[in-house]
């Protein structure tokens, strides 16, 4: 239970390194609320909510997220036009945007249900507007805390 919770940073690192080495040869069963540690040393994860098992899967499967694929896109120029161009697409399930520290830049998160269509069309749609330049683009990488919150707050089981 909580193998690294009360340790100083160096002791915590040492315990996690031992766990990482041991997991190659044996099963380690432990419980913790420190989800960064779980993400670092676990192959399979079970999530409990009020004592009930609500998710159990390999860590890679959980980190893929529960809402489908998501992409993060930062544009310079007309961020609202980029958001509008994407919202009408049948493979887009949600688009949310917020201005960056630089007023001329906007970062969008785009959730999709068809990765192939997104990879084929997403950038093309945004770049069709000559007033918009893409400054960053990538697939969103979830961390275990985000996934945990999606599952527990959203009532989704995996």
What's the short story on this structure?
It contains six helices and six strands; from the N terminus they run ααββαβαββαβα. By secondary structure, it is an alpha+beta fold.
Keywords:
single chain, 2 domains, alpha+beta, Alpha-Beta Plaits, 158 residues, elongated, four-stranded antiparallel β-sheet, two-stranded antiparallel sheet
What's the structural blueprint in terms of helices and strands?
Elements: H1 9-22, H2 35-41, E1 44-49, E2 52-58, H3 59-63, E3 69-77, H4 79-87, E4 92-99, E5 105-112, H5 115-127, E6 132-139, H6 144-154
Antiparallel strand pairs: 1-2, 3-5, 3-6, 4-5
Folded structure, characterized:
There is one protein chain. The chain is built from 6 helices and 6 strands, in the order ααββαβαββαβα. It is of the alpha+beta class and 158 residues long. The protein has a 4-stranded antiparallel sheet, covered by helices on one side. Strands 1-2 form a two-stranded antiparallel sheet. It is elongated, with a radius of gyration of 20 Å.
Shape call:
elongated
> What is the CATH domain class of the largest domain?
Alpha Beta
* Beta content: 25-35%
| Structure summary, number of beta strands | 6
The CATH architecture of the largest domain = 2-Layer Sandwich
């Amino acid at each position: 239970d909580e193998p690294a919770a009360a340790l100083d940073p160096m002791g915590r690192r040492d315990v996690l390194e031992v766990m990482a080495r041991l997991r190659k040869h044996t099963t380690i069963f432990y419980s913790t609320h420190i989800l960064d540690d779980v993400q670092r040393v676990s192959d399979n994860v079970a999530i409990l909510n009020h004592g009930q098992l609500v998710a159990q899967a390999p860590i890679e499967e959980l980190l893929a997220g529960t809402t489908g694929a998501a992409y993060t896109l930062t544009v310079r120029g007309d961020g609202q036009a980029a958001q509008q161009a994407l919202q009408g697409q049948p493979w887009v399930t949600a688009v949310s945007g917020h201005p960056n520290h630089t007023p001329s830049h906007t970062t969008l998160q785009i959730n999709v249900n068809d990765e192939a269509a997104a990879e084929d069309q997403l950038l093309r749609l945004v770049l069709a507007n000559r007033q918009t330049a893409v400054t960053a683009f990538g697939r969103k990488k979830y961390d275990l805390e985000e996934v945990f919150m999606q599952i527990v707050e959203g009532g989704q089981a995996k």
